[in-house]
UniProtKB/TrEMBL annotation:
GO terms for molecular function: succinate-CoA ligase (ADP-forming) activity. CoA binds at T17, G18, G19, A20, I105, T106, E107. The active site is at H266 (tele-phosphohistidine intermediate). This is Succinate--CoA ligase [ADP-forming] subunit alpha. Substrate binds at Y178. Gene3D superfamilies: NAD(P)-binding Rossmann-like Domain, Succinyl-CoA synthetase domains.
Length: 308
C-alpha cells in the first residue's frame, strides 16, 4: 500500500545534530520510522538519543561520512537537513554512498548548485538503467518529504493527520499537502503515500515520475495532484494523465489570482512571459480528464466524487 518507502526503509539523517535535523529526526523516530544512522562531520562516534512511539529510549549512531554510515548500518535512504551552502554536496555524497532515495528538506539551495546535482543524478540514473540496477531518486529540495502513513515518515509533515489507505497525494506545496491529507482523513479516506516534491525550479522527482509510480501501485486507487503557477510541470503531468493514467486524478492549482511577474512564495512559482498561469494549467488538466477543485477546501470531496 505504498510507493518508495515503508516499514523496511532504513533511514539516514544528514545533519542529525543540527537544530532542524535533531527536532525532526526525533519526530520521525517517534512516528515509527526506522532511523538507523545520522551523519555530521566531526561528530562521528556520538549517539543521537530519541524515544520511539512507546516511549522507549533509542540511540542512533552518528558517523562522520555517509559512506561509513551506509557501510555499517545498511541505510538505503537519506533525509537531508544540511544548511544550503553544503546541501548540494550532501545530496551527491548520499548517492555516491549508495542511497537509492534522497529526500532533501533544505530550503534555499542555489539554483546553480542544483543544476550540477541534476546533471549528476541524470548521469547516475542512466548508468543504473543501462546495467539493470535500481534507479536512484531525489525528492526535493525545499520540500516536506514523503510519508507512507502508519509505516514510515521521512520529512517534516505532521504525522498524526495521516491515515493508511489507498489515495496517493503529490504536491508542489507543503502546506496544501497537509490540507489535502487533513480533508481526506476527515472523510475517512486513507492515503497510500503522500509526497511533497517541492517548489524549486530545479529539483528531483516531478509530477510525472510520481504519477507513474502511483499508476503502477495496485493499492493506490486514486490521486490528488496539487500544483501552482510557474513552469510547465502541471502541463507535463496533464499529458501523462491523458496518455497513461487509468486511475482518477483530482487536481488543484494554487495562484489563480497571482499577478504576472511576481514571485509567489516558491522560487518556481512565477509567471514569466505570460506562461505558467493557473488558468493554463487548469485547462490542461481538465482536458486530460482530471477534475480540478475550485477551491483548496474542495480537494478531497472532488476526488471523492470521482471514486463513486
Amino acid at each position: 500500500m505504498s510507493i518508495l518507502v515503508g516499514k523496511q526503509t532504513r533511514v539516514l539523517v544528514q545533519g542529525i545534530t543540527g537544530g532542524a535535523g535533531s527536532f525532526h529526526a526525533k519526530q520521525m523516530i517517534e512516528y515509527g520510522t526506522n532511523v538507523v544512522a545520522g551523519c555530521t562531520p566531526t561528530r562521528g562516534g556520538e549517539k543521537f538519543e530519541a524515544k520511539d512511539h512507546s516511549g522507549k529510549a533509542v540511540q542512533v549512531p552518528v558517523f562522520d561520512t555517509v559512506a561509513e554510515a551506509v557501510a555499517k548500518t545498511g541505510a538505503d535512504t537519506s533525509c537531508i537537513f544540511v544548511p544550503p551552502p553544503g546541501a548540494a554536496d550532501a545530496i551527491v555524497e548520499a548517492f555516491d554512498a549508495g542511497c537509492k532515495l534522497v529526500v532533501c528538506i533544505t530550503e534555499g539551495i542555489p539554483a546553480i548548485d542544483m543544476i550540477k546535482v541534476r546533471r549528476f543524478l541524470e548521469a547516475l540514473q542512466a548508468e543504473r538503467t543501462a546495467h539493470g540496477g535500481e534507479i536512484p531518486r531525489l525528492i526535493g529540495p525545499n520540500c516536506p518529504g514523503i510519508i507512507t502513513p502508519e509505516a514510515c515518515k521521512i520529512g517534516i509533515m505532521p504525522g498524526h493527520i495521516h491515515k493508511a489507505g489507498n489515495i496517493g497525494v503529490v504536491s508542489r506545496s507543503g502546506t496544501l499537502t497537509y490540507e489535502a491529507v487533513g480533508q481526506l482523513t476527515a472523510l475517512g479516506i486513507g492515503q497510500s503515500t503522500c509526497i511533497g516534491i517541492g517548489g524549486d525550479p530545479v529539483a528531483g522527482m516531478d509530477f510525472v515520475d510520481v504519477l507513474a509510480l502511483f499508476e503502477a501501485d495496485p493499492d493506490t486507487h486514486g490521486v490528488i495532484l496539487i500544483g501552482e503557477i510557474g513552469g510547465g510541470a502541471e502541463e507535463r503531468a496533464a499529458e501523462f494523465i491523458k496518455a497513461k493514467m487509468t486511475k482518477p486524478v483530482a487536481g488543484f492549482i494554487a495562484g489563480t489570482t497571482a499577478p504576472p511577474g511576481k514571485r509567489m512564495g516558491h522560487a518556481g512559482a512565477i509567471i514569466a512571459g505570460g506562461k505558467g498561469t493557473a488558468a493554463e494549467k487548469i485547462r490542461a488538466l481538465e482536458a486530460a480528464g482530471a477534475k480540478v477543485a475550485p477551491t483548496p477546501s474542495d480537494m478531497a470531496v472532488t476526488l471523492q466524487s470521482m471514486m463513486k
